[in-house]
Write a structure and sequence with these properties.
One of its GO terms (biological process) is response to hydrogen peroxide. The protein starts with a helix and ends with a helix. The chain has a six-stranded antiparallel sheet with strand order 2-3-4-5-1-8, covered by helices on one side. A two-stranded antiparallel ribbon has the order 6-7. By secondary structure, the protein is an alpha+beta fold. It contains nine helices and eight strands. Among the domains are: about 5-60; about 105-185, WRKY domain (N-terminal domain of TfIIb). The chain binds a DNA duplex through strand 2, strand 3 and helix 7.
DNA sequence: GGTATTTGACCAGT
DNA sequence: ACTGGTCAAATACC
């Protein structure tokens, strides 16, 4: 058994190494004329984020991590989450524990500004399928459960939960769990996110440099940003306290949407603004509606916080698997668009 | 008809 | 026993 100190130190080292690697990448990009300014900027921000994380580790009172703290780190000392997932997958997804206790998870909060239209956390480029919604004790709004659409085909166990903040309905709390093991993860590249996008939609620009930033800072490991687009419906402020809230599940929402409130997420938009990956030609999802809402370009999307929490050993974002062992996996960076 | 979502029930962890 | 997470049948949508 290892003591906490060891874990912290390990995470700190990982974070610092990550920063070093990012700096290295930046250097490479600086020497490559074809490298886009956005990429460089992203790297810079990533480096900063990495240092901030490292500092926050040294200073527990730091405000970076908000955690969704979950179960304590694995006592075995080895990052077994991924292995556990694979085991489950290998055995039988259906019979696997319904509560994936050992899954790493991190939360991201996204603010949507009513009246402006908004958007959310963007596209992570992953396709998600809603498999449940539940009222949570103490929460005003239900929580929506989404899983990677590649789950069945590729056994990808990544899932995410979306819920409106109790205190501030303008904030979406998105919790990612598990790592993407599907091909989507390998195809994503923040630097060129919308490759498959057909018509350009001005509605939302899924990948602004800043967003890349956010993404990378949250999950360097790539996979996760999840893609939601949240659109704020234009309603009167009086309605902000809002009634029923539903999550965007991709599509269906339409009918009910009308009924709900300030935030509508609706698949119908997809047509206007979509993101998606499509290696497999799956669906494009986006949350948000497009009816009376204003869209994203002006939307004030604020990624307020992102925190990563690993149930097992790495409490920091981006250190989740690949970095947990203090090894950089080129693919990881590749996924993040750091490498060509 | 195929695919995605909804929703009540079931199961596991605390 | 309670709560959160997932399953799966029913339903809706394209």
């Amino acid at each position: 058994m290892e003591n906490m100190g060891d874990w912290e130190q390990k995470d700190l080292v990982n974070e610092l190494m990550l920063g070093r690697e990012l700096a290295r990448q930046l250097q490479i990009h600086l020497n490559v004329p074809s490298s886009s300014p956005e990429t460089r900027e992203t790297l810079v921000h990533e480096i900063q984020a990495s240092y901030e994380k490292a500092l926050s580790m040294l200073n527990p009172t730091g405000s970076i991590a908000i955690g969704v703290s979950e179960s304590p780190p694995s006592l075995s000392g080895s990052p077994r989450t991924e292995d556990s997932e694979r085991e489950l997958k290998d055995h039988d997804l259906r019979h696997a524990s319904r509560k994936r206790k050992g899954m790493p998870r991190w939360t991201r909060q996204v603010r949507v500004s009513p009246g402006i239209g908004l958007e959310g956390p963007l596209d992570d480029g992953f396709s998600w399928r809603k498999y449940g919604q539940k009222d949570i004790l103490g929460a005003k709004y239900p929580r929506g459960y989404y899983r990677c659409t590649e789950r069945i085909v590729q056994g990808c166990l990544a899932t995410k939960q979306v819920q409106l903040s109790n205190e501030d309905p303008t904030i979406f709390q998105i919790t990612y769990r598990g790592r993407h093991t599907c091909t989507q993860a390998h195809m994503l590249s923040p630097s060129k996110p919308l490759q498959n996008q057909g018509p350009t939609n001005t509605v939302m620009e899924p990948q602004k440099p800043q967003e890349n930033l956010q993404q990378q800072s949250q999950d360097l490991s790539s996979d996760f940003l999840s893609g939601l687009k949240v659109i704020t419906e234009v309603l009167d402020s009086s309605q902000q306290s809002v009634p029923p809230f539903y999550f965007p599940s991709a599509a269906s929402v339409k009918a009910d949407n009308e009924a709900f409130s300030p935030y509508v997420v609706d698949k119908s938009f997809i047509e206007n603004s979509h993101f998606s990956l499509s290696s497999s030609g799956m669906h494009h999802y986006s949350f948000g509606g497009n009816r009376n809402f204003q869209t994203s370009a002006e939307a004030e999307l604020t990624d307020i916080i992102c925190a990563a929490t690993s149930t097992t050993d790495s409490p920091t974002i981006g250190l989740d698997f690949p970095f947990a062992n203090v090894e950089f996996d080129p693919n990881t960076f590749d996924n993040s668009g750091f490498l060509s």
